[in-house]
Structures are given as structure tokens and as C-alpha cells.
Write a structure and sequence with these properties.
The structure is a single chain. By secondary structure, this protein is an alpha/beta fold. The protein folds into 2 domains: 199 residues, Glycogen Phosphorylase B (Rossmann fold, 3-Layer(aba) Sandwich); 184 residues, 3-Layer(aba) Sandwich (Rossmann fold), CATH 3.40.50.2000. The protein is 42% helix and 16% strand. The N terminus is likely disordered.
Length: 403
């Protein structure tokens, strides 16, 4: 079957090309499929997707096509344009409708398989839980957080996952914990799951400059010498931030304002308001700052300056902030459940995330035990070194080549 993947293909669509290797010199034709509108305030899923894309582009043996639905967000459009400047620039295919609508069409309507837009493919790689129909290509789909999907997504989400995972040739899971959850709920995936973990960006394995440290303190409203506890998590119920605020407020130095609490993240109005109510209840002396979403060198400097990262999530299938913090030598106080003990290992200080008193007690130990801090910080640097994107990319390529 000959595919028409030009501007007159079914449904239209736009294509901008540059520098892709021809099929005759490539060993694998692959489409990477993701919603680039997610580039605004990227979550761990988007960071995973883009980190893998960067490394796929750098492989000259792969004939790569980058596919997104219609892009409306400025950050996504800006990223899309940078793809044409890469040394091995991929082909780009923007679908005629938004990604969410395209996924609905592929699931419920006789919409054409992806190869209609891309031409022949060996693999379709979806770095999220997407169902994309194929003609002959094999399909790999990534599972990021089955427990969250099942606990908060309801029956419709479970049905969508079952369809995406059940029809995939490879299901890529970000942790052993997530794999266990996946196989418990979708046993039909037995035999086709491979672990392809998350990681920290390379910049977190280098130290911030003195200027970056001072600048980020001013940016979030901290005195140059003020110690602080740090949280890096979007404002979602599963992140357990109202309980963290109450637990931290039990520490006398937090209640007095001597020790600040910095909550990096953003979210829907409801969860954000629940956090603000708990902050207000601490009283006027407490110093709690909510600077919004931060990333890159600013976030790196915050990790380096913090007394500890507090991560009380009740539903976590990886936990990228824990790796970022450990890479910067920041102690990590973590929930003792889901994937966090798997990721941090002996570097972590653990607590029951459902028990406010347990969180407070663990934070107390982290602050007071200097010898324990030094030992676990060194362990944490070693643990973090195992979670780098180059290594995760090699796991991806091994999974796709594993027969």
C-alpha cells in the first residue's frame, strides 16, 4: 500500500522537514507521538517524553518523525520550531486537530492509521498512555502511573488504559513499583513490559553558581541567610501538601518564621486554596512561600540551598524531584510507600504520609542529625547517578530491540 503523507493526506495536516536521513540509510523508521501543548509547565511525563526525543534525534540510524496534534501553546510552538535546527533534524508532522481530539478519533472513529501521515514505520513510540492505530508498525506505549490512573481516573480511564496497553507490542514502565501495579490490573500485559525509568536532567548533576543561589533566594522572597524546607510538587490532592504544611508547622522554627517552607508548584484553584488555608492557619509569623512553577537553574539552586526536600505524596510511581534533590546533595524526606523507597533507597528518610505526626518527627530527625545527613547525602549522590536520561534512553532502545 502506498501512503500519501503530503498536505493532501486525509484530514490535511502540516509538515515541515529538515535534514532527516533517508530510509535507505536508516536502520529504523520511527514516529514519536506526543502532545506538544504539554510543554507549558512540563510535568514529569512531558520531561520524560522530551528527554527521550532529544536522544532519538541524536541517533543518525533512526529515521524519525515527530508527531503532535495541532499545537496552540506558545511553549509548544517554540519547541516545535527548534526541532528544525537540530543537527539531525527530524521530519515533523502536525496533525490537523489537537492531540486529545486525534486520540478520541483514533479510538472511536474509523480514522486512518498514523502511517497515512508519516509513511512507512517500524515503530510508533508513544511516551505516554496513547492508543494510536497502525498499519504495520509495532507500537510502544509508556505507563507512567497506573495507581494514580486507577485511583483517580475512574472506569473510563481504566478502559482507555486497557485499550492502549492491550494493543501495544511493548509497554514501557517507569519503575518496578509501577510494573507491579500494571500487571496486577492489566495481566494481559504479561511478557511485554520493560522498565524504562525516569531521570533527572543533566543540569542537576552540576552545581549552581553563587549568583544563581543568591538570585533564586531573591526570586522566591527569602533572606540571604534564611534556612528553608522545600517541596517540589504540583498542587494535586495526591501530593498531600495540606498535611505537609500542618506537619511542618508543628516545628517551632517553622511556626516562628525562623525556618521557611517553600512550596514550588502550581495547580487547579481548589487544591491551591486548600494549601493556602493551611498556610493561613499557621499564623502570621510563619514564613511559607509559594513561588509557582520553577525549573532549570533556578530549581537546581533551590535544591542546593534547601535544608531538605519534603515529598509526602500518597501516590507516586517514580518521583523525579527526589532524584534532582539527591543529585544536588539535598537530604530527602519521603513517603514510605509507592515507588519512593525504590527510587531513593538508603538515601531517604521515610515517614507514613497519612500520619501528620510521623512527617513532623521525620523532618525533626533530618534537621537535627548532622552525621546522618552527611552519610545519606553521599548515598543520595550515588543513587541519583543511576537515574540519568542517557541511561534511560539505552533502556528504551534495548526494549524496542528486545524480541
Amino acid at each position: 500500500m502506498a501512503y500519501d503523507h503530503g498536505p493532501n493526506a486525509p484530514g490535511g495536516g502540516s509538515e515541515r522537514q529538515g535534514g532527516a536521513m533517508g530510509a535507505e540509510s536508516a536502520s529504523m523508521a520511527m514516529a514519536w507521538v506526543y502532545d506538544l501543548n504539554s510543554c507549558r509547565g512540563p510535568t514529569g511525563v512531558t520531561r520524560h517524553a522530551l528527554a527521550q526525543l532529544d536522544r532519538l534525534i541524536a541517533r543518525p540510524e533512526i529515521e524519525l518523525t515527530v508527531v503532535s496534534g495541532r499545537i496552540a501553546e506558545p511553549d509548544g510552538l517554540a519547541y516545535w520550531e527548534t526541532l528544525g535546527d537540530r543537527e539531525h533534524a527530524p521530519r515533523r508532522k502536525e496533525l490537523p486537530i489537537g492531540t486529545r481530539n486525534a486520540l478520541r478519533a483514533w479510538r472511536f472513529l474509523p480514522w486512518p492509521p498514523l502511517e497515512i501521515w508519516t509513511g512507512r514505520l517500524d515503530w510508533i513510540y508513544c511516551p505516554a498512555e496513547y492508543y494510536v492505530p497502525t498499519h504495520r508498525a509495532r507500537r510502544a506505549v509508556t505507563s507512567h502511573d497506573v495507581l494514580q490512573d486507577v485511583r483517580y481516573g475512574g472506569n473510563s480511564r481504566r478502559d482507555l488504559l486497557g485499550h492502549a496497553f492491550g494493543s501495544a507490542d511493548r509497554v514501557l514502565s517507569v519503575s518496578t513499583f509501577n510494573t507491579e501495579q500494571l500487571l496486577e490490573r492489566f495481566p494481559e500485559c504479561e511478557g511485554k513490559v520493560r522498565v524504562v525509568p525516569n531521570a533527572a536532567d543533566d543540569l542537576f548533576f552540576a552545581g549552581p553558581t553563587g549568583g544563581e543561589r543568591a538570585r533564586v533566594r531573591g526570586q522566591v522572597g527569602l533572606r540571604p541567610d534564611q534556612p528553608f524546607l522545600l517541596s517540589v510538587a504540583n498542587f494535586q490532592p495526591r501530593k498531600n501538601l495540606p498535611r505537609l504544611v500542618r506537619a511542618a508547622g508543628r516545628l517551632p522554627e517553622v511556626a516562628s518564621g525562623e525556618l521557611a517552607l517553600v512550596l514550588v508548584g502550581e495547580g487547579e484553584p481548589g487544591p491551591a486554596e486548600a494549601i493556602r488555608r493551611e498556610v493561613a492557619a499557621l499564623g502570621p509569623k510563619a514564613k511559607v512561600v509559594m513561588p509557582g512553577y520553577l525549573q532549570g537553574t533556578a530549581l537546581r539552586a533551590l535544591y542546593a540551598e534547601a535544608e531538605a526536600l519534603a515529598f509526602p505524596s500518597t501516590c507516586e510511581s517514580f518521583g523525579i524531584p527526589a532524584v534532582e534533590a539527591m543529585a544536588q546533595g539535598c537530604p530527602v524526606a519521603l513517603a514510605d510507600s509507592t515507588a519512593l523507597p525504590e527510587i531513593a533507597g538508603e538515601a531517604g528518610w521515610y515517614f507514613d504520609p497519612e500520619q501528620e505526626e510521623a512527617i513532623t518527627a521525620t523532618l525533626r530527625r533530618v534537621l537535627d542529625d548532622e552525621a546522618g545527613r552527611s552519610r545519606r547525602v553521599e548515598v543520595g549522590r550515588s543513587v541519583a547517578a543511576a537515574f540519568r536520561w542517557d541511561r534511560a534512553h539505552e533502556a528504551l532502545m534495548a526494549a524496542l530491540g528486545d524480541e
